[in-house]
From TrEMBL:
Coiled coil: none annotated. GO terms for cellular component: mitochondrial matrix. GO terms for molecular function: tRNA (guanine(37)-N1)-methyltransferase activity. This is TRM5/TYW2-like N-terminal domain-containing protein. One of its GO terms (biological process) is mitochondrial tRNA methylation. Residues 99-142 form the TRM5/TYW2-like N-terminal domain. The lineage of its organism: Eukaryota, Metazoa, Chordata, Craniata, Vertebrata. It comes from Micrurus paraensis. It catalyses: guanosine(37) in tRNA + S-adenosyl-L-methionine = N(1)-methylguanosine(37) in tRNA + S-adenosyl-L-homocysteine + H(+). Keywords: Cytoplasm, Methyltransferase, S-adenosyl-L-methionine, Transferase, tRNA processing. Signal peptide: none annotated. It comes from the Eukaryota.
Length: 147
């Protein structure tokens, strides 16, 4: 598996806010925050030590970068402009969920197995017959991420 193939630059919608209100704002915006393995939701602003970027989930923000009505109301209550900014970020293999990696490496149309049981250091997964040719790849992915 070529982990370097998962490396890509992407643009994430973000809010640029005063660092003093960051923790309160995180609690209020929990539903639209970026949730990726190995990534922080709050990033320092290199240009201003008093501000931070709060990274938002691009799948929960409209295509034009605008927030929903409830999120806009929350931002107004904090006195924050509800317009998002673009934050450039590099994603690597470690920032993808197991299901996303399997979907990327298995042939189109393959069902992705997500359930398994683990006892100590042994993981048990029931694969279907059409998944058997990929059992070693699936095993390496799951053992590298979960065990």
């Amino acid at each position: 598996l070529d982990k370097a193939a998962f490396k890509n630059d992407t643009i994430i919608p973000a809010l640029l806010v005063n660092k003093d209100i960051t923790s309160n704002l995180l609690k209020s915006l929990k539903g639209v925050l970026l949730q990726r393995p190995g990534l922080k939701r709050v990033v320092e602003d290199p240009d201003d030590e008093n501000r931070k970027y709060i990274l938002l989930d691009p799948h929960k923000i409209s295509a034009d970068g605008s927030l929903g009505e409830s999120e806009q109301q929350i931002l107004k209550s904090f006195g924050i402009n509800p317009e998002t900014v673009k934050y450039n970020m590099e994603l690597t293999y470690d920032n993808f969920k197991t299901e996303e990696i399997l979907k990327a490496v298995l042939p189109e149309g393959q069902e992705i197995t997500t359930a398994f049981s683990r006892i100590g250091h042994i993981a048990h997964m029931n694969l279907r017959s059409h998944q058997l040719p990929y059992k070693h790849l699936i095993g390496r992915l799951w053992s590298g991420i979960t065990v």
